[in-house]
Amino acid sequence: MPSPSTITARAEKIRGARGKGPRLLELWTNTHKPPLHEEVYKAITPIYEKLTSDDLLTHCIGGFTQNSTYNDGLISAMRVMQNIGIKIGPNCYNYCQETDQNRIKLSDRSLSDAARRSRIEQKASRKEEDEFYVSMEGEMYGAGIAD
To answer: What's the rounded Cα separation, in Å, for the pair 95 and 92?
Structure first.
């Protein structure tokens, strides 16, 4: 970075050339206010510390942090439409209800034991196929292969 005297000289040269050019010197030497107001900082610091505590984060190690509950479905979209002044007719209401029911049926079907067994079998067959190809052709890619 140039020395302060060089910066000052450049800033003065630009100001002189343009008359009312940008105040470069003030931009380079400006001190900024804190990004958060002190009261906001005090309010969110305990929450941040709780959320980043080792005790809480150890529960996230397994990766099972998603909650599979479903919100109100398309009914919430219908409420938004009402709030912005769109009149909701019976076709819209029936579509929302039907779509939500179909989604729930599909979700229940995917959670069944048969679907679970099918996914496990598919994964096993893919693994066998991959192992077969590796045994026939050798490893095609991976860490350290190009070394």
So the answer is: 5
